[in-house]
Amino acid sequence: MKIDSNALRQDRPDLWDRFTRREEYEVSIRDMHGRFPYWASRDRDIFRPSVSGFLYEQGMVKPEYPDGCEFALCVTHDIDVVYSAPYMKILNGLRSARRGDIKGFARETCSVLDRKSPLYNFMDILSLEEKYGVKSTWFFQALEPGEPEFRYRLSDVEGVFGDILDAGCEIGLHGGFDAPFNLDRLLIEKSRLEKVLGEKAGGYRNHYLKLQVPLTWELLAQAGFIYDSTLGYNDCAGFRSGMCHPYRPVNLNAGKEIDIIELPLHVMDMTLFESYMRLDFNGAWKVVQGMIDLVRECRGVFVVNWHNTGYVDGRIELKMIEKVMEYCRANGACMNSMEQLIRQV
Fold this sequence. Notes:
Blueprint: H1 5-11, H2 13-20, H3 22-26, H4 50-57, E1 71-79, H5 86-98, H6 102-110, H7 122-132, E2 137-140, H8 154-157, H9 161-166, E3 170-175, H10 183-197, E4 203-206, H11 215-223, E5 227-228, E6 250-251, E7 256-257, E8 261-262, E9 267-268, H12 269-272, H13 281-297, E10 301-305, H14 316-330, E11 333-334, H15 338-344
Parallel strand pairs: 1-2, 1-10, 1-11, 2-3, 3-4, 4-5, 5-8, 9-10
Antiparallel strand pairs: 6-7
């Protein structure tokens, strides 16, 4: 989708600054993982896609979706872990018992001797998505023992790649700890995934949502990726760049567009609940529903990241993603993978 960024800069310099993430060039604050956090941002209008809304109102973006759909939902999965250690299952079981969750206690304790339970749940996720007509995007790590954040080998998961692709879904790279700042690491991990996948990997999202503006985008373009979907906050849901349409980001240092498409992330499962915003189900749904409705108004793309850990029976995250898919389907959303969406829009 081509956006006239020069017109945006001239007509609305305030929105131009949000669109280009100017404050991330100017503010040096970063968290322990090198991320620019929402709490350091001057922008408090986080739950409104202000830039996309303006572009749509001015006729500067005119998205068209397949089958007459009004907007799009992209369901994505960052696969960080596929096996849960026995001691963690016991600990989770005790936590469930303390909360009075008898089913959770039984599930966790009964799975102690089953290495794949409950996180090797890819077929369950695909089955649920088929129910709602969703074609999702999966981001797998391509790390080896001894590398930071290594948790599984590609050989542990390659057996489900065919099932994911046969379902019409897409597989991309979930970059490792150092990848967003190092071209060599990007190329190594990309090559590993493509060797197992048997085809090019065009999509990318980094672990921990680590991204440095504009460096990471430039490196991804050099590595041959088609799109990125890392631009979102860990500590708050919302529209970090004010965008809910695919776009090419601008390098303010070079004064030109970068040859990569950004599909910004808007909501992550871990963000809504215990880890950051600490919302209950009703409070989280109020936030999410409001965002979906605003995306629909400007015919945008709503992007969610739901880890496989959020699809365990009884989890509040599972209840929420079903609500999101059901609501979006009922409101005329196209629910294809990111790769499909980029080709179609």
